[in-house]
Design brief:
InterPro entries: Gln_synth/guanido_kin_cat_dom (IPR014746), Glu_cys_ligase (IPR007370), Glut_cys_ligase (IPR006334). It is built from 18 helices and 14 strands. The protein is an alpha+beta fold. It has one domain: Creatine Kinase, Chain A, domain 2.
């Protein structure tokens, strides 16, 4: 353990500081496809009974009209966050008719590329902007890839913790800058160690063969319709998932907030020749928002992002530059197809200890090729994480995954103990022990369990996924929502539909001008 981590642990372990750790915030976003009874992509519009995908705070769509996204509030107790997530699932199932929520991250058998429906948000300018952005994604990366679903885990440390650390360490500058620098340091450590999360929680070792649309690949045949890799943990996070030539040269530097926002701002303002060739319009219709490397900053695919809640009409980059980093969004988590909501409390408790370790441990700048080494370790684990004797690179030296994983879990243990001390009980230490068991026995990992279940039941990937989807549907439908909770969701749905209608009625100014102003907003801060 580093001296810095030791000092920070003893400071936070003091009796008057210990309650601070109960104020960490946890939010979850879970994406999932709507599918038919026979496991095909639902071609129906977003159910009106769920509300407006544009204005509903908790139930929206991601890329496709068929790709739901459930969003919890950020709460201090992850058990309450997960309860909120389950309630959203139960409400959705009350309105889905004979459709199901697809259980894993990798999609169901998909229709032809052009038959995957892009999400529609109505006729308001902001609604159309969201639609055209998705048309641009289709053009740039294809629709198939956008049907992959995941879980995003949002985490923040209490605001009062930063001045405490700052004072103890005699740091110069403003509290806001110290806090931002600390979150960027967390992200650097996350880049170093997130391969461990892929080993422990990766749950996509197989996929429906149709997903590749005949592209060349290195996968093996599991059966007539399923491709897999025997030791893979997360094909979702491999280069089969999000591929982008335009983004290949874009590696935002996580050395400080300015260098990060600068690189994204440049990407949003720098033309990319193949996109320029296509242009923004075809036959008088918008096909992409602009011809730059990124249409908007959210297009940058990364495993973790620094975030700040935005004001109405404000862009994520503007919020970060104006008010600094407020929380991080870990984006590399697969949906666990054995769990009704795709994630459970054990995983959340471990993530808290892991992220706290990343935040408080020393985090030198990523230099001398370490950035590339982080990426390489990550990609090795997603494709071969369970291979016996697998080695990774640590500080330029080979080390077995098992040895490094054990070492990391030992280093995270004091953080788990500190969290338990603060919350009472032993849930964090128990969560850590469950991860150690997976390091000891790879067969306990979700990725191994997926393949074991498919083998045992002689099922293709899609048959396995549909069976799990139906098991979860039965569980989620079996227990009605508490009456007041159902009432709350019904009201949210109605209010969101009314809000969208009002937006559309009051719309002023034409869409082309709206897009110009939107583009200008990022250029204004880059000068």
């Amino acid at each position: 353990m580093s001296e810095l981590l030791n000092r920070r642990l003893s400071l936070l372990g003091q009796r008057n500081n210990l309650p601070l750790l109960e104020q960490c915030l946890h939010g979850i976003e879970r994406e999932c496809l709507r599918v038919t009874e026979d496991g095909r992509l639902a071609q129906t519009p977003h159910p009106e009974a769920l509300g407006s995908a544009l204005t509903h705070e908790q139930i929206t769509t991601d890329y496709s009209e068929s790709l739901l996204e459930f969003i919890t509030p950020a709460l201090t107790d992850p058990a309450k966050t997960l309860e909120s997530l389950e309630h959203i699932h139960r409400f959705a199932y009350a309105k889905l008719g004979d459709e199901y929520l697809w259980s894993p991250s990798m999609p169901c058998p998909l229709p032809a590329e052009e038959d995957i429906p892009i999400a529609w948000y109505g006729t308001s300018n902001i609604g159309q902007l969201k639609y055209v952005y998705r048309k641009g994604l289709a053009l740039r990366y294809g629709r198939t890839m956008q049907c992959i679903a995941g879980i995003h885990y949002n985490f923040s440390l209490p605001e009062k913790l930063w001045p405490l650390l700052m004072q103890a360490e005699g740091a110069e500058g403003s509290e806001r800058d110290y806090q931002s620098a600390a979150y960027i340091a967390l992200i650097r450590n996350f880049r170093r160690y997130s391969w461990l999360l892929m080993y422990l929680f990766g749950a996509s070792p197989a996929l429906d063969a149709g997903f590749l649309r005949g592209r060349p690949h290195q996968l093996e045949a599991f059966d007539a319709t399923t491709l897999y890799l025997p030791y893979a943990t997360s094909l979702r996070m491999s280069d089969l998932g999000y591929q982008s030539n335009a983004q290949a040269g874009l590696t935002p530097c996580y050395n400080d907030l300015n260098s990060y926002t600068d690189s994204l701002r440049k990407a949003v303002g720098t033309p990319y020749p193949p996109y320029v060739e296509i242009g923004t319009h075809k036959d008088g219709e918008w096909v992409q928002l602009n011809t730059n490397i990124l249409q908007i900053e959210n297009e940058y695919y990364s495993n973790i992002r620094p975030k700040r809640v935005t004001y109405t009409g404000e862009r994520p980059i503007q919020a970060l530059m104006a008010r600094g980093v407020q929380y991080v969004e870990a984006r590399c988590l697969d949906i666990n197809p054995f769990l009704p909501t795709g994630i459970d409390l054990t995983e959340a408790r471990f993530l808290d200890a892991f992220l706290l370790y990343c935040a408080l441990e020393e985090s030198p700048l990523l230099e001398n090729g370490e950035c590339g080494q982080c990426t390489s370790n990550f990609l090795t684990v997603v494709k071969e994480g369970r291979r016996p004797g697998l080695t990774l690179q640590r500080k330029g030296q080979p080390v077995t995954l098992k040895e490094w994983a054990e070492d990391l879990l030992q280093r995270i243990e004091p953080l788990a103990r500190l969290l338990d001390q603060s919350h009472g009980g032993d849930e964090h230490v128990n969560a850590l022990a469950q991860q150690q068991a997976k390091v000891d026995d790879p067969e306990l990992t979700p990725s191994a369990q997926v393949l074991a279940s498919m083998t045992e039941n002689r099922e293709s990937f899609s048959e396995f996924a549909l069976r799990q989807s139906k098991v979860h549907a039965e569980y989620l439908r079996s227990q009605a929502l508490p009456a007041e909770e159902l009432q709350r969701f019904e009201t949210l749905a109605r209010t969101s539909l009314a809000a969208q209608a009002e937006l559309e009625q009051q719309e002023v100014g034409d869409f082309d001008l709206f897009v110009s102003a939107y583009q200008a907003s990022i250029l204004a801060i880059s000068n």
